[in-house]
Amino acid sequence: MIPNTAPEPAFPSRPNLRLLALGGAAVLAAAATSAYWYLYASHFVATDNAYTSVEVAQITPQVGGTVIGVKVKDTQAVRRGDILLTLDPADATLAVAQAQAELDRATRRVNSYVANDRSLAAQIQAREADGQRAAAQLEAAQADAERARFDLERRQPLVDSGSVSGEELSRARNAFADAMANLRACKANTTQSRANLSSALAAQAANAALISDCTVATNPEVAAARTRLDQARLDLARTVLRAPMDGVVAKRQVQLGERVQPGVPLMAVVPVSEMCVEANFKEVQLSQVRVGQPVLLYSDLYGKRVPYHGVVEGFSGGSGSAFSLIPAQNATGNWIKVVQRLPVRIRFDRAELEARPLKVGLSMNAEIDTRAGAPRPGQAR
């Protein structure tokens, strides 16, 4: 019998087929993972270093006083305009009454200025009439003096001839002396009348400066008194402290009967409806992040069963280390590079926040979708 020397067909063994299948599956998985990362996952950046934040309103008095009423307690919800506490208004009420009296006095004083202006105008007319009368008297005195001088000069040469007696010459001399005295008196009266007129004109000008270009209501003295009254009324109104916004009372430190001073914090109002998230992303995550991009948020309080939706609102002006109490001195020789984090402000959807309220400082998880508003090549951030 002749043996069969034909070669047997080569079939791979079963273990080799399994290795090939496993390698193919690995290649497919890697390709799928790469495609998923490139087409989807690479467009999201996430962090769990995020916390709820809000701009808390500090309640501080603007006037000093004794607390006579505290209307709220910690954790109490308040609406804008609700009374938080009241101070003793006695001193402020007295200040308002005093300022009102000062305003009334200033108004009457300005009214007297107006009346004085009319009185001074009448005095000026009288002084002008006095001046005219003094001028007429001066003219008459000058005429009398001239006539007396002429009579004296005419009689003096006639005394030696006996045509004029000594007595008549003496009377002429006396008449001339009287005329000259009267002339000097008239001149003095004229000077005095001019001085009186000048004084009246100056008084009128000084009085006019107090009331010119204004009414009684707009006079500076009245306006200043009215301003003091407005300030006193404002101080009285400030004895009642009201909530500046809707929110929740926190950190109440004031007690009934306590004497408070302006500027001392008494409590805070937390506007929970204005809550936002401060998410601290690594600097290497922010190359594609832009204002306005959507954000998916989860809180540790409710977990992933309660998602929140937000929007990137802005970026901090510096990293946390730059604003720390003791900034890093990277110019020293002992330097180790540390990836920095930049706070990103995220605005909540108001309706979701009202449905599921949060408190300040709670931990959050934030995931930003960078596909919206992604920059074009070469576009500045």
Describe this structure as you would to a colleague.
With 381 residues, this protein is α+β, with helices and mostly antiparallel strands. The chain is 43% helix and 21% strand. Helix 2 packs antiparallel against helix 3 and helix 2 packs antiparallel against helix 4. Residues 376-381 have low confidence and may be disordered. A six-stranded antiparallel barrel has the order 1-10-13-12-11-14. Strands 2-9-7-4 form a four-stranded antiparallel beta sheet, with no helix packed on it. Strands 6-5-3-8 form a four-stranded antiparallel beta sheet, with no helix packed on it. Among the domains are: 57-89 and 236-269, RNA polymerase II/Efflux pump adaptor protein, barrel-sandwich hybrid domain (OB fold (Dihydrolipoamide Acetyltransferase, E2P)); 92-233. The chain is built from five helices and 14 strands.
